[in-house]
Amino acid sequence: MALRFEVLGRFNRARAARLTLPHFTCQTPLFMPVGTQGTIKGLTTDQLEEIGCQIILGNTYHLELRPGSQLIDDLGGLHKFMNWKRALLTDSGGFQMVSLLHLADITEEGVTFQSPVDGKPMLLTPEESIHIQNNIGADIIMALDDVVKTTITGPRIEEAMYRTLRWIDRCIAAHKKPDVQNLFGIVQGGLDPVLRDICVKGLVERNLPGYAIGGLAGGEDKDSFWRVVAQCTAGLPEDKPRYVMGVGYPLDIVVCSALGADMYDCVYPTRTARFGTALVPEGVLKLKQNAMATDERPIDPTCPCMVCKNYTRAYLHCLVTKDAMGSQLLSYHNLSFMMRLSRDLHMSILEGRFPEFVRGFLRMQFPKGDVPKWVRNAMVVAGIDISECCTPAKYPRDAMDAPGTDIPELCPPTKCS
């Protein structure tokens, strides 16, 4: 394995670790910005280094469409191609089964896409996905899995889970560069705890360098979301990284880290920046609002990033959604926020003050004490007392189990608060 994972500190399920990859040594928990085609929109690689970005995620499907993985390989791999000296992760292309479902046909052989560029069919098999990722050269590559939305029910969920297990063996056999690239498997199974458990056990038997929890953040209720994360992290090895795919809301990252997850990715911080929204400790700041037009404060007075040091809310209000500079500056700030959150999570676990950090985070996000029920449930399982952050009426423990948690008294499942 071209990976070393060392747990440096713990609080119950949460852990702070050192993840050593061929191109960079990372600290977890960590957030990975999504650079679909080898770029984070509007930001240079120097800027990403400046804010402390450790790993960038690239999209296998889109990179194969343009400019093509063979060209990337011929030019020295994606690291050299995009001038990025730190770590890279590429997804398998499987997510496009959901996002481009209207263009996809899924069979046991693989998934055939109709190219959104020229309309030509493109067959992505487990073998082809790994071949493309071997060409791209990322530090971490993802197995092709059969992805379905968590809002779907019925036999399709079971079909996709068992196909994911069959495909992982084909991915392992096709992987030509295990000495420099780490193949992660992806746990599927929808919201069914029995299917999730079968998939976890099947993947762990393959002794992979790391594991991802897939198929979430697709519209399921939040109580189901955290329960799946808790179940999977409980069943995955202690000495391997755990990656929750598609998660980018700061609250979700804090909760999942408390439950034992290590890695996250999402387009949310940069996408919401393009719509004029900044991430702040209290939640979000909508810079398009008229109240921002004369506000001379920075986005966040506590933030040390270049944007907060040099620009006012009033200036950014003039730019957002009207000038490319607005989305660039907000993307810089939002990713800086996510990198700072990652560092704070790591250090608070390492220094033995993780519960205090979580409580402080929740007090900022929910000053009225209205912490959502799903968060309260998850913190019971994580072993973190957040009663002081909640109004008394908002801290019940009454009803049912969460799979894989051994905690008998939780609020019943509910739609996202």
Automatic annotation (TrEMBL):
Q: Which GO terms describe its cellular component?
A: cytosol
Put simply, this protein is called Queuine tRNA-ribosyltransferase catalytic subunit 1
Assembly information from the UniProt record: Heterodimer of a catalytic subunit and an accessory subunit.
* HAMAP family found in the cross-reference section: Q_tRNA_Tgt (MF_00168)
Q: Which GO terms describe its biological process?
A: tRNA modification
Q: Domain of life of the organism in this record?
A: Eukaryota
Write out the residues that bind Zn(2+).
303, 305, 308, 333
- Region described as RNA binding: spans on this chain: 246-252, 270-274
Q: Where does substrate bind?
A: 91-95, 145, 188, 215
Q: Name the source organism.
A: Oryza punctata (Red rice)
Q: Which reaction does it catalyse?
A: guanosine(34) in tRNA + queuine = queuosine(34) in tRNA + guanine
Pfam families named in the record: TGT
> Into which EC class is this enzyme placed?
transferase
Segments forming domain tRNA-guanine(15) transglycosylase-like: 13-364
Report keywords, A-Z. Answer: Cytoplasm, Glycosyltransferase, Metal-binding, Transferase, tRNA processing, Zinc
Active-site residues from the entry: 91 (proton acceptor), 265 (nucleophile)
Q: Where in the cell is it found?
A: Cytoplasm
What are the names of the required cofactors? Answer: Zn(2+)
Instruction: Name the EC number(s).
Output: 2.4.2.64
Role of this protein = Catalytic subunit of the queuine tRNA-ribosyltransferase (TGT) that catalyzes the base-exchange of a guanine (G) residue with queuine (Q) at position 34 (anticodon wobble position) in tRNAs with GU(N) anticodons (tRNA-Asp, -Asn, -His and -Tyr), resulting in the hypermodified nucleoside queuosine (7-(((4,5-cis-dihydroxy-2-cyclopenten-1-yl)amino)methyl)-7-deazaguanosine). Catalysis occurs through a double-displacement mechanism. The nucleophile active site attacks the C1' of nucleotide 34 to detach the guanine base from the RNA, forming a covalent enzyme-RNA intermediate.
Q: Which family does it belong to?
A: Belongs to the queuine tRNA-ribosyltransferase family.
A GO molecular-function annotation:
tRNA-guanosine(34) queuine transglycosylase activity
| InterPro entries in the record | TGT (IPR004803), TGT-like_sf (IPR036511), tRNA_ribo_trans-like (IPR002616)
